[in-house]
Amino acid sequence: MEKFKEILTELESKLNNVNSLNELVEIRNEYLSKKGIVSSLMSKMKELTVEEKKTYGKEVNELKTSVEKLISEKQIKVNEIEQEKRFKEEKIDISLPPISHHVGKENPFYKIIDEIEEIFIGMGYKVEKGPEVDKDHFVFELLNIPKDHPARDMQDTLYIDNETLLRSHTSAVQAHVMQKEGGKPIKIICPGKTYRRDDDDMTHSHQFAQVEGLVIDKNINLGNLKATLELFAKKMFSKDSKIRFRSSYFPFTEPSVEVDVSCFNCHGKGCNICKNSGWIEILGAGMVHPNVLKMNGYNPEVYSGFAFGIGIERVAMLRYGIDDIRRFYQNDIRFIDEFNKKVED
Ligand code: PHE
């Protein structure tokens, strides 16, 4: 029986050094498993007399209860120690600076497209899409620009094959929409990319974008075109903007005009934005040529229409005071951020 006391004192001192669950499990196995110390002491019963069994049995059971008690008490302590350890490991240092993520923002190029769309949607226009890779037939032929026409020189582009090319203007969409609508009235705009042989410099790029506009109905006249573009200029640039028409030439419009907007910076006095003329050229337009109406299934005796093509980058450059067209395509985050400040503040 003295031995039992020793066993308990030894267990106590062992438990004093235990700091982790693993260590405790080992000790429990050593004492309480099937082949452990307590079991082997119990199995000694069968060697004893009935009389001896009585006292030995009692003592050994008490030993078992004490061992279990000591171990489960220690278990509570070890759980606390382990929890403490975990808390320390998982502790978050709230004084650390945050990891900053740069949130992508909208390129001013797309902001202008949105604004232009808003303005025309407000006037009842529908926004159409057209293919960037298109057929000669739609880009030139159906717009009154046959194969040998000199106007093709100004719109040389990249060819996929003899008949397939990257569109040199969004005017191709005019033909697509007229063919699709099959003689019904039309009131659409179509923003999109265009490609043209050009010098790449501060104001020119071989890839740029336009918004095409096309209105076809009965009794459409040049006055409607002027009123429409004047409203556009007022909404896009300034309330007191004026526009002026200068006669021009496009094979698919007759008459054709270049459209200038009064300089929103100097209001006509002359400055570096308008090159001292008081006017800034922003687009080409005109009345849809009767040949174009005919070729695309509209009777020019009944229907008339106007069309215009706005250079998107040009409008964005004027509007935001951007000096180099290439900035739109470089995706320099610092440049893009400049145009999103208001949203952030
Ligand atoms: N497509 C012409 C261009 O690219 C612009 C334009 C469109 C002119 C519609 C008249 C009518 O220059």
From TrEMBL:
UniProt main location, coarse: cytoplasm
MF annotations from Gene Ontology: ATP binding; catalytic activity, acting on a protein; magnesium ion binding; phenylalanine-tRNA ligase activity; transferase activity; tRNA binding
Cellular compartments annotated: Cytoplasm
Pfam entry (one): tRNA-synt_2d
Domain Aminoacyl-transfer RNA synthetases class-II family profile: 92-330
Coiled coil, from the record: 1-28, 64-91
Name the record gives this protein: Phenylalanine--tRNA ligase alpha subunit
Any GO BP annotation: phenylalanyl-tRNA aminoacylation
Keyword Isomerase: no
This protein's UniProt keywords: Aminoacyl-tRNA synthetase, ATP-binding, Coiled coil, Cytoplasm, Ligase, Magnesium, Metal-binding, Nucleotide-binding, Protein biosynthesis
Textual note on the cofactor: Binds 2 magnesium ions per tetramer.
Catalytic reaction annotation: tRNA(Phe) + L-phenylalanine + ATP = L-phenylalanyl-tRNA(Phe) + AMP + diphosphate + H(+)
Entries under InterPro entries matching the protein: aa-tRNA-synth_II, aa-tRNA-synth_II/BPL/LPL, Phe-tRNA-synth_IIc_asu, Phe-tRNA_ligase_II_N, Phe_tRNA_ligase_alpha1_bac, Phenylalanyl-tRNA_Synthase, tRNA-bd_arm
Residues bound to Mg(2+): 254
Record organism: Candidatus Onthovivens merdipullorum
Top enzyme category: ligase
EC number: 6.1.1.20
Cofactor(s) this protein cannot do without: Mg(2+)
Family to which the UniProt record says this protein belongs: Belongs to the class-II aminoacyl-tRNA synthetase family. Phe-tRNA synthetase alpha subunit type 1 subfamily.
GO cellular component assignments: cytoplasm
Quaternary data: Tetramer of two alpha and two beta subunits.
